[in-house]
Amino acid sequence: MDENADQAAVVAEYLIAPNPTNARLTRPVKGLDHTGAVAEISVVEERPLTIYLNRQEIVTAMTIGDYPEYLALGFLRNQGMLRADDVITGIDYDEELETVVVRTEIETSYEEKLQKKTRTSGCAVGTVFGDMMEGLEDVRLPEVEVKTSWLYALAHKINRTPSLYLEAGAIHGTVLCQQDRPLVYMEDVGRHNAVDKIAGWIQSTGADVSDKILYTTGRLTSEMVIKTAMMGIPVLASRSGFTAWGVEIAQEVGLTLIGRMRGQRFVCLAGEERLLRDMDPKDAPVEDKKHRRKSAGT
Questions:
Q1: The predicted structure's pLDDT at residue 48
Q2: How far is CA 180 from CA 116, 156, 183, 238, in A?
Q3: Are residues 215 and 124 in contact, defined by beta-carbon separation less than 8 angstroms?
């Protein structure tokens, strides 16, 4: 199978895959390379998106501009501003004004939450509220078995998927997966935005996530762990590393936490008892260098 056919077969597995050919998401920019020669490369666009909940302005995030409705819905859900039983009556996106308004059946004021707004350690505009951990003490995730063959297959497929990262770099990806199949792949300049888009898709479709895996290219921080747990996803995996608080929270809520997925290697720091080692690492597929993400080498 040639490379184009191979990539087409991988993309066919997705419900939503990246669209690196979308001209709105990148821009060609000319500069000089290390030899002084003229070089033209594609760079990722950033656009502001202001999110409203009913009549209340909540936040302005920098984003690549795709799936704004999912981003807004997921952001509000992940910040605890939308409860599971809230009835959404409409989501209105205005491309010219760069705003999206999420409307609910019952309006609620969030001035107190806005006063407690803090910046997170994440890149781009990662915004979280001081009471984000409300309700986390009641979370206990399903005890889902995870085969190591699934992890190796997912990493191999995701790294070979045509994406904005491979086209232009400077971007994070998050993928909702089931066993060894990647389902929904979102990208953005901040890993928080990419996760929020996944959350918005879940909220919109009512998808069952009790047996799903969330794969991210970003660090496994406390916020990433909290968002995954609050979405009800029992497994979180990444090619990047961990923070101590992220590991501690994962252990408390029963989240299987796997990081440093590089080539044939990974490290599991929470939920190791749920791993089924059904594949010898030396038999795991290894992609060539041009498809490897940064820090993904063996």
A1: 95
A2: 40, 10, 10, 15
A3: no
